[in-house]
Amino acid sequence: MNSSKKVSIREVGPRDGLQNESTWIDTEQKIEWINHLSRTGLPYIEVSSFVHPKWIPALADAEEVLARIDRVDGVTYAALVPNEKGLERALRAGVDEVAIFMSATETHNRKNINKSIADTLPVLKNVTRIAKQEGKSVRGYLSTVFGCPYEGTTEQTKLLQTVEALMTMGIDELSLGDTIGVATPNLVEAVVREVTKLVPTEKMALHLHDTKGMAIANIACGLRTGVRKFDSSVGGLGGCPYAPGAAGNVATEDLLYLLHGLGYETDVSLNEIMKAAAYIQEKLDKPLPSHNLQSFLAKEGSV
To answer: Which of the residues are catalytic?
Structure first.
């Protein structure tokens, strides 16, 4: 059991948060937002996606954004990469870490990547190999770990087979995704305990969506099982285009409130994170689901 009080947050708002937004955020505004996030104490920011712009038009400016942000020492700037061509673009733009992705269920993988799991693995293996040759670390996202919008319950034997295949490629970290937000603490505990037979908790992260309002409870359970890395998105931005009805990621500020309240160390400023969340809420011109953000803004408005 991991008893460390140090928790590392992977901020995915600029990629996972914006990828489904219909409101276009200007390149200059993305850069300003990411620069603000870089000054909050976050150790990791997923800046954009190098999936073809046809599929994710909201992030069509990935190369310019990644190339022009003001980098802060100690911050890892990552990007999502689907294949070798996307990797070439990401490397040219100066990515620090490559994030590959696939699903734990066949139907979601076909909807999301347009390939079977069997056909996806060799592509990701090649991306991982080249990224490693270029001196980059590699993170693996595994979606629908706790449930699938098309298949329902995720079959655990197949899940573990996919986990083993990703780890055998040599990825540095595995992010277990509750893509549609259906997990409950008992399921999180059961899955994490099974996956730790193949992956040490030091190389594991949880990526939890809040569709059913369970993300914070699930994170608390993840902490008890030894996980110390969590994906989150300022404001609670996010969702999955191939998971109908899925709400956003857990809000970074709500995650921080929990962690700090429980005595965990993050080195991240909650106040600065809420300012960054307020910035992107204003640009999107709609209220975001973060509890702490709305409380913060209400208090600011009453002063």
So the answer is: 240
